[in-house]
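Co-fold these.
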Amino acid sequence: METRAAAKRKANAAIVVVVEKQHPKRQRVVLGELPNLQNLIVSKIQNPRKEKLQCRKNPNANKPSPTNNTLSSPQLDGSYVSDIHEYLREMEMQKKRRPMVNYIEKFQKIVTPTMRGILVDWLVEVAEEYKLLSDTLHLSVSYIDRFLSVNPETDPPSVDEFCSITDNTYDKAEVVKMEADILKSLKFEMGNPTVSTFLRRYANVASDVQKTPNSQIEHLGSYIGELSLLDYDCLRFLPSIVAASVIFLAKFIIWPEVHPWTSSLCECSGYKPAELKECVLILHDLYLSRKAASFKAVREKYKHQKFKCVANLPTPPYVPSCYFEDQ
Amino acid sequence: MEKPGGGGVLSAKEAFEKLEKVGEGTYGKVYRAREKATGKIVALKKTRLHEDEEGVPPTTLREVSILRMLSRDPHVVRLMDVKQGQNKEGKTVLYLVFEYMDTDLKKFIRSFRQTGQTVPPQTIKSLMYQLCKGVAFCHGHGILHRDLKPHNLLMDPKTMMLKIADLGLARAFTVPIKKYTHEILTLWYRAPEVLLGATHYSMAVDIWSVGCIFAELVTKQALFPGDSELQQLLHIFRLLGTPNEDVWPGVSKLMNWHEYPQWNPQSLSTAVPSLDELGLDLLSQMLKYEPSKRISAKKAMEHAYFDDLDKRHL
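Predicted complex below.
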């Protein structure tokens, strides 16, 4: 009999295939062996928060929000921007498009939050290796969480049913079979918005108002967004909340002495700073490696020059609580 | 009937009786069929899944996931169910179960051409309004169709209801727009920016197609019937004039831009003589060279051309 861990690996291979088909001209990958889970130490949260930073008003806090044209390429008619955003916000709340928040505790006998983190960290490497879009990575993780939410105890097929297995890599027929199972299980609801869906819009608004090079906010946002994938705790939050919190934290990292949240960001995201507090603090812990410190792939990836080395940017050890008060 | 992807106990073979083959696509055949339990007529789109090859074809995957996102708009064809079955060789087959529509706009236009009749102006107006409404719905939900043409617009000739179908090439787009492949869209309805190799494009490509369909409804002939990418561009340039940096900033930087023969723009009324002034105005806004200047589907619905249309049942 195939082990349950192997069955999970096969499912993950199929998930990458499903997502990749939605991004044509990308090479597909089949996942290999996950690292050994024994003796894995996940660092505890240290450094109690202290407050030293002075809270300053953001000079841009009450600037009018940018016109719709700044949120998009010239070909995108501005009148659709808010329609699409509204629809995505509506869609992200649909139960069928979200993983169950505490599915590991409720259902999973095998998968643990640590194992999930290892898998996601490894998927980041796969995405880098094959130059996959950030959207692909976010969708893959979303499908995995949703699949594991509705398949608590998948009985793996017997070895006899496999055509050939070498080096823990499944042949195409096996991955295709699993792909069909995943699609059936998720009822073909593959169009769910992810953190990266919302990040682009919020990053555009942030860089437009702040007159910052878009790439710095974008790269830092992508980095924190991918860090959020590592943390099972982040499943509690809607993707739009995570995306808004990512931008909040990114702006805090770049300008720690200026209030990160502007009226434009508030208007375009629909969130006030207080609503982001819990998520921002989790992301801040991830950024400082106070959580998920053993997962290196995301951190190594964003130390590269092509991402402007954003993983090396310093940040204060705490976020002043006054930044979470409404302006 | 169960909801899409419900994976009910009955296989496609048990649940449906195939009546006739009505079409064939890249990945399989389309049948008119009867649901045995209810007697309801449906369209079955059969997709071969070669398990030794690549699994569910990307077009099918995109079409199903996008139709699942678009829920139930009256002007987008309804996906009623997804069923798995097996063919004679025992290979897995996926059946997409759609509501059945009697005809499509291509056949509808052909029937008028064959009898020498013109499509009544109010019928054109109604069909165009429904098309704009369906496209606006897709665009408002972040979906780009990318292959709008008369053949992909299904119709009920009794009620004159029109529905957008065949979302196999559609993309759910995000803001800002990603680079897309330009090898899409049937040649005759392909926007000039796609023909010229633009990799960043958006809703405007669908609006160009809508404009071409509008003209075809009026004249019963394709507006730009090119048989190659170059010929397609030349057809467009002959009518609308060869574009330059003044009318379309950035055009000369597009990948496929060359020195083309220089034509002056003609009046659209030379190509679509029987269309009234308001119709010509709307058409001209749909066929603007610069994509950002092209009218949106949402704005098109508000155009004065549609003012005298009874929109209550559309």
